[in-house]
Design goal:
The complex is a heterodimer. Chain A is α/β, with parallel strands linked by helices. Helices cover 34% and strands 10% of the residues of chain A. Chain A is built from 14 helices and eight strands. An eight-stranded mixed beta sheet of chain A has the order 6-5-4-3-2-1-7-8. Chain B is mainly alpha-helical. Chain B has five helices and no strands. The radius of gyration of chain B is 19 Å and the shape is extended. Chain B starts with 21 loop residues before the first helix and ends with a helix. Chains A and B meet through helix 9 of A and helix 3 of B.
């Protein structure tokens, strides 16, 4: 059993459960008084404003905010108390788009996507569309959370799902601090089960990648070095193998923003993001080739904008009225949280971009 | 003027030293950057050495900087504390080894 780390902001009735309030915080203070440049002004320095969407490559679908974990830094504010779940009707609309889109990657996320009662049906149907790379972002512990999920590794294998899982550190202490007591041990067990059926093994087509995001108010280190350290430690301590490590920067929104403010790290963190700004990362930020679909079918430039309720700047606003031509070339909606994707080597759901 | 000798925000201004001596400042930062690149030692090992030295030098800016740098590199708190003990051991050893000089002097003057 895992012990929940905290409660969702929504459950706590925190003011930060309100997306508009988050955007206000990100727009005021050090960005309003000119102490730090706004993201818009920063990218304008290199003539990269407005950021424009290119051809769609990745369709990311958030099938619901319900999760068996309540991680300290979750940008979704997910948890067991979140009831926002994608309906089969919306899933059906997504399937229509999946069939006709030229995107090479389909990326299912949540919450714990597996907790959507229609998750398996959706995966079965979506896998028929012949998308090249079909990702499910699994938090690992869900595989061990309840008997009804024990066969998930086999289910993933059957549909050739690419499993991408969060792992904040190779030590128990740092992982449990961020994700809850017991998460590390359950994650290790789940990884061993995935390895046992071929996931993550060298030369295996069953892709298993890990996502590393820092456990506190600091930026991720070099992705390649971190991957080396993760591989060495997980192999030596637990005999675990995986393919790639994606180092992802925590964006200052939702529960991570709450943590930054409560721990008095907000300003220092924003300074660190701005100081690490890398103009060459801007050209490849994921919002330029990704589209994020929310549990209720609305379209966003990325999962972070979805959580901030900043919809796409396009006439095609909902999956039911999806129009790839209208969406291509749209201006990306930005705010100061975008500095999280342009710091250092850049950051995206697929790791570094620069 | 600041009422304290150290202000954490001053660390962000470190680069400004170049403004008053561009050539030397630039040379210093180029050298500094080069030192911390991966080489015969990994950047992670260098970060831990820097953390230990930061403590023996008792530089609060360096302690802040290399604690954060270590966290970014996935260095654990146990590794950080061990590194500091290495610095402390050398520092105390350096003090104590001078005890031999004291002993030599005592033996010479009062042996």
């Amino acid at each position: 059993m895992t012990k929940l780390k905290t409660k969702s902001l929504k459950r706590r009735e925190s003011e930060l459960a309100n997306a508009r309030r988050q955007v206000e915080i990100l727009s005021n203070g050090i960005f309003q008084n000119g102490e730090l440049p706004t993201f818009k002004n920063k990218i304008a320095e290199t003539n990269q404003f407005p950021l424009k969407a290119k051809k769609l490559e990745i369709l990311q679908i958030n099938v619901g905010y319900m999760c068996n974990q309540v991680c300290e830094h979750c940008h979704v504010d997910a948890g067991p108390d979140r009831k926002e779940i994608m309906t089969t009707e919306t899933m059906q609309q997504c399937l229509e788009v999946i069939k006709k889109t030229g995107a090479h990657t389909l990326d299912l996320t949540g919450g714990a996507p597996e907790m959507n009662p229609n998750f398996r049906w959706f995966v079965e149907e979506a896998s028929k569309a012949g998308i090249k790379d079909f990702i499910v972002r699994s938090n690992l512990t869900i595989i061990r959370a309840n008997k009804k999920y024990y066969d998930l590794p086999e289910f993933f294998k059957k549909h050739n799902v690419h499993v991408v899982s969060s792992m904040p550190h190779w030590t128990r202490g740092k992982t449990d601090k961020q994700r809850g007591d017991g998460v590390f041990d359950m994650s290790i067990k789940a990884l061993q089960e995935l390895n046992a059926i071929g996931y993550g093994m060298p030369n295996s087509d069953l892709k298993l990648d890990l996502v590393y995001n820092p456990s506190g108010a600091f930026l991720p280190g070099d992705q390649a070095s971190m991957e080396k350290d993760f591989k060495k430690a997980l192999m030596e301590d637990f005999g675990i193998q995986f393919h790639n490590l994606f180092a992802i920067t925590n964006l200052p929104i939702s529960r991570f923003l709450d943590y930054l403010i409560a721990s008095e790290n907000y300003e220092d963190y924003m300074y660190a993001l701005v100081e690490a700004y890398n103009p060459s990362a801007v050209a490849n930020v994921m919002c330029t080739n990704t589209l994020s679909v929310s549990w209720d079918g609305y379209l966003y430039d990325c999962d972070f904008n979805q959580m901030l309720k900043l919809p796409v700047n396009s006439k095609s606003k909902h999956i039911s009225e999806y129009n790839e031509e209208l969406l291509e070339g749209r201006n990306i909606v930005i705010s100061q949280h975008c500095y999280g994707c342009t710091a250092g080597a850049g950051s995206s759901c697929q790791g570094t971009v620069a | 003027m600041s009422k304290t000798y150290y202000d954490p925000a001053d660390l962000r201004k470190f680069g400004k030293i170049t403004e008053w001596s561009e050539e030397l400042g630039t040379k210093f930062f180029d050298y500094y950057g080069k030192v911390f690149e991966e080489g015969a030692l990994t950047a992670r090992e260098k970060s831990l050495i820097a953390l230990a030295v930061a403590h023996t030098e008792q530089c609060p800016y360096c302690i802040d900087a290399y604690t954060k740098d270590g966290l970014q590199r996935g260095v654990t708190k146990e590794e950080m504390m061990e590194a500091i003990h290495v610095g402390a051991a050398i520092k105390s050893g350096a003090t104590l080894v001078h005890g031999v000089q004291m002993m030599n002097k005592v033996n010479k003057l009062d042996g």
